[in-house]
Amino acid sequence: MMSDYCVEFTMPYARRYKDVYQLRISLDHTDPEVWRRIQVPGSYTFYDLHVAIQDAMGWLDYHLFEFNEKQAGFRANYRIVSVFDEPEEMSFDVGWDYATEVPIKKLFKAEQDTVLYRYDFGDNWEHSVTLEKILPREKGIKYPICVDGALAGPPEDCGSIPGYYKCVAAVKDKNNEMLQRWVGDWKPESFSPKDVKFETPLKRMEIALDE
Q1: Domain check: are 61 and 145 in the same one?
Q2: How many domains does one find in the chain?
Q3: Quick one: which of 30, 106, 108, 117 has the most CB atoms within 10 Å?
Q4: 132 and 145, same domain (yes or no)
């Protein structure tokens, strides 16, 4: 399959797996913390993981994303990016691969390994994704699953962390009627793992390519 920029990538597909990776996803700079705990197939690529994080956090997959090794400083040595990123935008002296081509085990090698997941380069939502443990696959469970977490994810395009807290205040204190109308029925404290529904990565990619 080819992207709009004529660079080859692999369409998502289900792979066999024996191990399950339990990951903790924390939305950086939130207090109290917005977070999730999910279990995903050990055969996942970073694109598959992107789709799972989007669904677990309540994001709508409207924007570009990237993964890179969690480290001090702004610049990463290696980026794992969306297939809709433009290669010419990534021509600086940093290695990169499309997320569809990189298995999560490339960066998640041991417990407490942490990867930075950035979503929406305008609002710049940064998530710390930490490998808590590697578990054997259990019969009768359909992975991925969300097993824990707290607080609703911020509304899309709300203006990064400051905008998120303005939305929280508008709902709680009813201090901004226009913003209240904009967020609709969003409830900042409302989250239950059982409400998380995961879409298959292939379906998500097909929808994106059709748009």
Answers
A1: yes
A2: 2
A3: 117
A4: yes
Q: What is the pTM of this model?
A: 0.93
Contact 146, 36 (CB under 8 A): yes
Q: What is the pLDDT of residues 143-190, one digit of tens each?
A: 999 999 999 999 999 999 999 999 999 999 887 899 999 999 999 999
Give the position of tokens 């201090």.
175
Write out the residue range of the structural domain in which residue 23 sits: 19-152+194-210
Tell me, yes or no, whether 80 and 97 share the same domain: yes
On whether residue 4 sits in a domain, the answer given is no
Distance of CA 120 to the CA centre of its chain: 10
The pairs formed by 186-193 with CB atoms below 8 angstroms and a separation of 24 or more are: 186/152, 186/155, 187/152, 188/151, 188/152, 189/151, 189/152, 190/152, 191/149, 191/150, 191/151, 191/152, 193/36, 193/145, 193/146, 193/147, 193/148, 193/149
Residue 12 lies in a domain: no
